[in-house]
Design a protein that fits this description.
This protein has three domains: about 5-165, Glutamine synthetase, N-terminal domain (Ubiquitin-like (UB roll)); about 170-420 and about 435-560, Glutamine synthetase/guanido kinase, catalytic domain (Creatine Kinase, Chain A, domain 2, 2-Layer Sandwich); about 575-700, Up-down Bundle (Four Helix Bundle (Hemerythrin (Met), subunit A)). The longest helix is centred in the C-terminal third of the chain and has 55 residues, at about 560-615. The strands form two sheets. Strands 7, 8, 9, 10, 11, 12, 13, 14 and 15 form a nine-stranded mixed sheet that branches. The protein is globular, with a radius of gyration of 28 Å. Helix 3 crosses helix 4, helix 10 packs across helix 11 and helix 20 (about 560-615) runs antiparallel to helix 21 (about 620-655). Strand 8 and strand 9 form a beta hairpin. It has 23 helices and 15 strands. It is of the alpha+beta class and about 700 residues long. Bound molecules: adenosine-5'-diphosphate (ADP) and magnesium ion. Magnesium ion binds next to loops. Magnesium ion (MG) binds near residues 201, 328 and 456.
Length: about 700
């Protein structure tokens, strides 16, 4: 029987959250820390010492022996270095448990083992981790004991960002400043701060751990490199939102409990489109907390799976021909007093502000479609985007029928005087219609859809940090707001100026709006006519980071320096090439040591059977003979493709890291991998199942 617990009681029990701080910290210290958190000031050492001491005492009560600065380098996973709280033994041989403010604020891991994309060559190898006090510390309890985890940013000796969090915090500052400017223009005097809010929906696959362990491709690369389609795929649509099986339900229950203890508000869970695929979504939170929480979600999904004899696959495309996994990044901008700038609102006055915000976002996405696309670029995601299961690789905005109609009126007459769905027209300041919040339809094919009071960016890969897309969203929208404010702050007649600007932006950027079927081939042609980029792979996406446009944007808002952008693109090329090299080597290993020997065994059995049958009686052995011919031909094809792949892999492997290597991997290595996979998948359909050296797709996705 499973254990029962009270969610309200366990929620956040392992988080050093506001309630704990208020209870444990002296009033003055608490107030000081809150000011630092809300206003982004520097924390003084005296306050830090008191906070650190209380944090340590609290963590020790939870069983913690160690603390770690928990950070997100550009490796794609979180990193941590554990230090215990113990001090040097005293004269009496005893130790104390200590944790100073200095240790809380700053750590100094050796940065040389983390990717720096060349920043390391020019600067020192030392790196710093700095406490991000806007994301609460937590205690993680697992087989390794309990550890106090302190969310931190990770920078080089001279302050260059070497992680995901630093640019994210900078971009949050940028959108805060520009949104406040905009709100002031509309007469808002009460809001003090604007924060991007993010709710990521996480998709994942679960497979049986024993079967997983029999597949080297899954172990080394997270995806299957061989595999014929099972007789039944997802065509029946019987899995989506279907009843959750008991084994999976028990797993989800365990995941939820772990996450709730960590203060992650896991809210919805359901089966996804593909068999064995599921989704988990938390309630939205401030962007940096949402990014940290999503890392915890991914970590927890994987960790808990082991306890249930399962393995969680977060790869974007674990199985060819079966829907892959992504992450929907729901994004909005909300003030400290609860005003969502993406809420269409009830009065014409709000509508005008909303329409300005909306057309600014259209402008931002239109101008920087390449950057948004790049922010979701990933070797795994290349298999997914544009494959009729996820958004196409072309960035466009879905507005829904009602907003689209308003936009069309603005564009044709300069004024919108009616609203669809029989809404009563409110003639306010200028004739703009009311909006109904949920008048938006669903369009699953759009990469960037307006869904009532938020935008949903659906391109992000399941395995990726959501930091990069949010950095881009925050910064490009900050730029559009800033441009708008530059115009409006100088305007004599504000009302007139706003209307003109809305109209102007709606007209100039209408081409980014597309409400039709994003999977259709016509859209690819239409997008090309509109001049929208169609960037089909990661290698072609990376250059967006270092265009003059991108450098000017990120430098203007202090999010990235040019050097940081260049270093990031180097890291991306390198990680792409690494991913493909590992895949190629895993394929070589499996084909050479498992598949080919198994096929040889099978041909031997066939040949022996032909001879035995012939010797016994003059029977017709043409079936066996034709099978043998077919298998032998495929075997020869596989053997020769394997030789080509070995050659291609050697060539790619020794190349210097950088764009040329990534291009070689994309064009030559990938082609060689496909050429090997084709005959092997055909062989899988012929060779005796008992002889096939690994579990099939059917075994993996239907028997969980
Ligand atoms: P869907 O129908 O796409 O599943 P939901 O309304 O369930 O959409 O929300 C999906 C995610 O969006 C959840 O994580 C939710 O908390 C988040 N979300 C809801 N409102 C907002 C908002 N204003 N800003 C950001 N995220 C939001
Ligand atoms: Mg959604």
């Amino acid at each position: 029987m499973s254990e029962f617990y009270n969610v309200a009681e366990i929620f956040g029990e392992n988080v050093f959250n506001d309630a704990v701080m208020q209870e444990r910290l002296p009033k003055k210290v608490y107030k000081r820390l809150k000011d630092v958190i809300s206003q982004g000031r520097d924390l003084d050492l005296e306050t830090a010492d008191v906070v650190a001491h209380e944090m340590k005492e609290w963590a020790i009560e939870k069983g913690a022996t160690h603390y770690t600065h928990w950070f997100q380098p550009l490796t794609g996973v979180t990193a941590e270095k554990h230090d215990s709280f113990i001090t040097a033994p005293m004269a009496n041989g005893k130790v104390l448990m200590s944790f100073s403010g200095k240790e809380l604020i700053k750590g100094e891991p050796d940065a040389s083992s983390f990717p720096s994309g060349g920043l390391r060559a020019t600067f020192e190898a030392r790196g710093y981790t700095a406490w991000d006090c806007t994301s609460p510390a937590f205690v993680r309890q697992d087989a390794a004991g309990a550890t106090l985890c302190i969310p931190t940013a990770f920078c080089s000796y001279t302050g260059e960002a070497l992680d995901q969090k630093t640019p994210l915090l900078r971009s949050m500052e940028a959108i805060n400043i520009q949104s406040m400017r905009l709100l002031k223009l509309f007469g808002n005097t009460t809001s003090k701060k604007v924060t991007p809010s993010v709710g990521p929906e996480q998709e994942y696959f679960l497979v049986d751990r024993q079967k997983y362990l029999k597949r080297k491709d899954l172990i080394f690369t997270g995806r299957t490199l061989f595999g014929a389609m099972p007789p039944k795929g997802q065509e029946m649509d019987d899995h989506y939102f279907g009843a959750i099986r008991e084994r999976i339900a028990a797993y989800m229950r365990d995941v939820n409990k772990e996450l709730w203890k960590l203060g992650v508000s896991a809210k919805t869970q359901h089966n996804e489109v593909a068999p064995a695929q599921h989704e988990l979504a938390p309630i939205y939170a401030e962007a940096n907390v949402a990014v940290d929480n999503n890392q915890l979600v991914m970590e927890t999904l994987k960790k808990v799976a082991g306890r249930h004899g399962l393995t969680c696959l977060l790869h974007e495309k674990p199985f060819a021909g079966v829907n892959g996994s992504g992450k929907h990044n729901n994004w909005s901008i909300i003030t400290d007093d609860g005003i969502n700038l993406l809420d269409p609102g009830k009065t014409p006055h709000d509508n005008i502000q909303f329409l300005l915000v909306l057309t600014c976002i259209m402008k931002a996405v239109h101008k920087h479609a390449d950057l948004l696309r790049e922010s979701a670029a990933d070797a795994g995601n290349d298999h997914r985007l544009g494959a009729n299961e996820a958004p196409p690789a072309i960035i466009s905005i879905f507005l829904g029928e009602q907003l689209q109609d308003v936009l069309a009126q603005l564009i044709s007459t300069g004024e919108a005087t009616r609203s669809l769905k029989g809404e009563v027209l409110q003639t306010g300041v200028k004739t703009l219609p009311d909006f109904m919040k949920d008048a938006t339809d669903r369009n699953r094919t759009s990469p960037f859809a307006f869904t009532g009071n938020k935008f949903e960016f659906r391109m992000v890969g399941s395995n990726d940090s959501i930091a990069a897309p949010n950095v881009v969203l925050n910064t490009i929208v900050a730029e559009a707001f800033s441009d708008a404010c530059d115009v409006l702050e100088k305007a004599g007649d504000f009302e007139m100026a706003v209307h003109n600007l809305i109209k102007e932006q709606a007209i100039a950027h209408q081409d980014i709006v597309f409400n039709g079927n994003g999977y259709s081939p016509e859209w690819v042609e239409e997008a090309e006519r509109r001049g929208l980029p169609n960037i089909t792979n990661m290698v072609d996406a990376v250059p967006a980071l270092t265009t003059e446009k991108a450098i000017a944007l990120f430098e203007k808002f202090n999010v990235f320096t040019e050097a940081e952008l260049k270093s990031r693109s180097e890291i991306l090329y390198e990680s792409y090439a690494k991913a493909l090299n590992i895949e190629a080597r895993a394929m070589i290993d499996m084909a050479g040591k498992q598949v080919i020997p198994a096929v040889i065994k099978y041909t031997t059995v066939l040949a022996t059977s032909i001879n035995t049958v012939k010797a016994a009686c003059p029977a017709d052995t043409s079936a066996q003979e034709s099978l043998l011919t077919e298998v032998s031909a495929l075997l020869a094809e596989a053997k020769s493709a394997l030789g080509d792949l070995v050659e291609a892999a050697e060539k790619a492997y020794v190349m210097e890291a950088g764009r040329a290597q990534a291009v070689c991997c994309r064009d030559e290595l990938k082609a060689a991998m496909d050429a090997l996979r084709a005959p092997v998948d055909k062989l899988e359909m012929i060779v005796d199942k008992d002889m096939w050296p690994m579990p099939s797709y059917g075994d993996l996705i239907f028997e969980v």
